[in-house]
Design a protein that fits this description.
Rossmann fold, about 35% helix, 6 helices, alpha/beta, 2 domains, seven-stranded mixed β-sheet, 9 strands
Length: about 210
């Protein structure tokens, strides 16, 4: 059994994006609406053309672009970690960040890095999870928020939301409805981790009821 380490009262989030960052936008909107008690201290993108950068700047957030092209993973990760620590990020949130993190990066934030995946893990890890699920013929799919470890889409699960596969669905309509649940599930998971209101038993993240 692993108990969470205390998180500072600042409740700072470091958001990593590579694209449009729709989950980042949902998190920012939940913070603005008072549904999530947190502060986004930095938004980092590895791509200068990521549409999410403009969304972050429009919100007046601290935005840093750290290009990854042509660099080793370790060199890039060290610069990203340095920026996260300078911004005093308590929890690192991967919001469509299309790079695998090095083991060293993960060790800098133990049980403090979250990712979201558009399937009910451990089913359909990796790319095109919604199409994988649809092509397999499942009746229920969904999304998973999990801690990041050294393996792809593998860490202990914090929150899952289910989405039924409808008779007239295709993989695109299924993906759209999964994304709606992602926008709720991610903030729920962040709240659990920031509150420290959980324990890890084996691979299970168990929210405490009191």
């Amino acid at each position: 059994m692993n108990a969470p380490q205390p998180i500072s009262s600042s409740r700072n989030l470091g958001i990593l994006i590579s694209g449009r960052g729709s989950n980042f936008v949902a998190i920012a909107d939940n913070i603005s609406a008072g549904r999530l008690h947190a502060r986004i201290s930095i938004v980092i993108s590895n791509r200068s053309d990521a549409p999410g950068i403009e969304a972050a700047r429009q919100r007046g957030l601290n935005v840093v672009v750290i290009p990854s092209k042509g660099r080793t993973r370790e060199d890039h990760d060290r610069e990203v970690v340095s920026a996260l620590k300078e911004a005093r990020a308590d929890v690192v949130v991967l919001a469509g960040y299309m790079r695998l993190l090095s083991p060293w990066f993960i060790q800098q934030f133990p049980h403090r890095i979250l990712n979201i995946h558009p399937s009910l893990l451990p089913s359909f890890p990796g790319l095109d999870a919604q199409k994988q699920a649809f092509d397999y013929g499942v009746k229920v799919s969904g999304c998973t928020v999990h801690f990041v470890d050294e393996h792809l889409d593998h860490g202990a699960i914090v929150v899952q939301r289910t989405v039924p596969v409808l008779p007239d669905d295709d993989d695109h309509s299924l993906a759209d409805r999964i994304l709606q649940q992602e926008h709720q599930a991610y903030s729920e998971a962040i709240r659990i981790v920031l509150d420290g209101n959980y324990e890890i038993i084996g691979r299970r993240v168990v929210a405490k009821t009191h």
